[in-house]
Amino acid sequence: MATRRCGLSSIQGREFFDAVISQFALMYFPDGVASLRQMWRTLAPAGRLAVAVWAPVDRARGYQILVDIAARQCGSEATAVLAAPFVLGNPAELAKLFIDSGISGASVTLYEGSVRFPSIKEFIRIEVKGSPLADMLSDEEMETLATESERALAEFVVPSGEIIMPMDAHIVTASKR
Description:
It is a single chain. By secondary structure, the chain is α+β, with helices and mostly antiparallel strands. It has one domain (2-175): 3-Layer(aba) Sandwich (Rossmann fold). The chain contains 7 helices and 8 strands, in the order E-E-E-H-E-H-H-H-E-E-H-H-H-E-E.
């Protein structure tokens, strides 16, 4: 007998979820296969899984520009930090990760979108100062990165002063049968 409460099912004394959602986190888990297996394991029969990851960095042109600037100005370690959110962007590799996790029938769909920040300066503050780069870059390196970014990202500035850049994502869905 199964009982349901708030998206949770109980079957033979074990609790399962009707839906599991991972929103832009899978790329940071040290073992993607183990993480997906755990998500799948906790799903009730007929449960649904949805996982969102960023598309490749080349589908997020503003971030690609920032990564390129960091590569020139700050080196490979800084580049790796800024590129990390996009490591699962290849749809074929993403689909294989699900297959390797024992999840068959997963569907990978590309969604085109955009990201908005109040200004280029705020974009740099959030993406650099709010990441491990804050401890990796000197004040001088940070200023150089910000100055070059102001020029390179000017094409994304709208009349209000905000910055709007393309940023696409993959949504992977699967249902447990």
